[in-house]
């Protein structure tokens, strides 16, 4: 049996060119009694680089073939006697005979900074009917190493790091017809399409310096924190000794004023009140018809010449409110009359009392005159003096009563005048409030009653002439109104007087 290696390379036309190689005893002590392929004719640096070349479009363009053939005199050395096929099949090609193939690969270990060798064993069985075909896809790895603490040194190595195997079988007849050789078995070796690149970087002086700088920065930050903490503790101890800086009262007052003003500005309740006031002012500035037409601004409106009048229900509501106002006014007038009658009765009673007091005063004067006549001789006596004093006091009391009468009369007239003024003010306020509430209620009704809204819109368009600028602006914002004035026949007549088209 003949075993020989062949390097096969395809040219541009796809034809294979063969280069015969040879076996030599393996130098590796782990591969004693084995023969290795001699690549000295192919690549001078057979240690660090693979002997095959990778082609991206055809990874089997260059491959190593180790073929096992029946012994022929053409391929053997001169003087070699070959056995016949029958003898070869009887002695070699059976289950007792096995073929072993060992593939050596390498792997770089950064810890030991050396290449570690790996040896894998593959086993094949020989058959007298089939030809075994073993295909080995070798994986190439390129390792780039940068080493040196201060001065960097770079080195690159390319080697076989691993492989994958595929087994195949063929018939003797097909192989003999295809290659014109009596093949027993063959192994094919080629580079895999997926390679690998490794970069190994050892520790440098800049990296060590960088680590030192990071440690230094950490210590510096810790020192700054400790210094700040020490200063705070020192100030705290100093303040406890009685040397505390007082806050400026002016700054405190200014700060409080700023806080109060900011709180007042952010008060949502006040903002809501202001918004409600503005809303009420806007509603009071428009009439009910204008506010209803304002809802149509920016919309297309189709008008009809026949505009109905206000419904009877609205007129009844207005009449009810007017009756209510008249009733309240009549009740106020009645109250005024009743109060004036009561005051007149009181005046009459006071006049009667005054007349009675005048009558009593006249009687007392007559008695005094009689007493004076009786006591003319004893004018300087004590009894006459005492009686005279009593009479004088009594007269003074009686004279003060008409003055009180006049005062009560004036007070009564003032009270009646003030009462009239108060009633007039109440009626004015009631009238104003009723008018304002009536207006706001009508506007609020526009938002919830569509029928009432349409009626007010009809009243707005039913005006013969629009006098105010506000009416004209509302008409300008209605889409289609000017077109209606130019050509009223372009609109579609409808039953309703006003309809909104979005």
Automatic annotation (TrEMBL):
<feature type="region of interest" description="Disordered">
    <location>
        <begin position="385"/>
        <end position="406"/>
    </location>
</feature>
<keyword id="KW-0175">Coiled coil</keyword>
<feature type="coiled-coil region">
    <location>
        <begin position="436"/>
        <end position="463"/>
    </location>
</feature>
<feature type="compositionally biased region" description="Basic and acidic residues">
    <location>
        <begin position="386"/>
        <end position="406"/>
    </location>
</feature>
<protein>
    <recommendedName>
        <fullName>AMP-binding enzyme family protein</fullName>
    </recommendedName>
</protein>
<feature type="coiled-coil region">
    <location>
        <begin position="333"/>
        <end position="374"/>
    </location>
</feature>
